[in-house]
Amino acid sequence: MDINNMTFFAELYNVRENPEVGMWLLYITVVILSIIVFKLGFARKLSLLKNIVIYSFLIFGCTILSLFAVGLPIIEGLMVAALILIIYKIRLKQERKQQGKEA
Questions:
Q1: Coil, helix or strand at residue 98
Q2: Which long-range contacts (CB under 8 A, 24 or more apart) does 35-41 make?
Q3: Geometric angle at alpha carbon 31, from 28 and 33, rounded to 5°
Q4: pTM of this prediction?
Q5: pLDDT per position as a tens digit, 12-39
Q6: How would you write the chain as a 3-class SS string?
Q7: What gap in Å lies between CA 75 and CA 35, rounded to an integer?
Q8: Fewest CB atoms within 10 A around its CB: which of 19, 40, 44, 84?
């Protein structure tokens, strides 16, 4: 991976000059956005043990994604996915509310 072609967030978190802190910030951002996207799009009511297992694997997978986030727009893609899912949830809620008024 070419270190000269860094993504916006890699530059924002100053990965080139301070790689340790910058990578931790990238990792935390990827984890938070991944959890948001998972909760909005895929999460179901599960037992506590199943949730622990799922989030453990999610956090482990974010380790790999944060390495890719230096040169690929991973965080930007997660932000777009979260935005689309938020809009979808809002529209779904409005539609259900309107169907409730009609019935």
A1: helix
A2: 36/78, 36/82, 37/78, 37/81, 37/82, 37/85, 40/82, 40/85, 40/86, 40/88, 40/89, 41/81, 41/85
A3: 105
A4: 0.86
A5: 998 989 999 999 999 999 999 999 999 9
A6: CCCCCCCHHHHHCCCCCCHHHHHHHHHHHHHHHHHHHHHHHCCCCCCHHHHHHHHHHHHHHHHHHHHHCCCCCHHHHHHHHHHHHHHHHHHHHHHHHHHHHHC
A7: 12
A8: 44
Q: Indicate the angle between helix axes 48-68 and 74-102, nearest 10 degrees.
A: 140
Which residues are CB-contacts of 33 (< 8 A; sequence separation ≥ 6)?
75, 78, 79, 82
* Cβ atoms within 10 Å of 89's Cβ, excluding its own: 12
Contact at 8 Å (CB) between 22 and 14? Answer: yes
> Within 13 A of 26's CA, how many CA atoms are on the CB side?
32
pLDDT band at 100 (very low <50, low <70, confident <90, very high): confident
The count of other CB atoms within 10 Å of the CB of residue 93 is 10
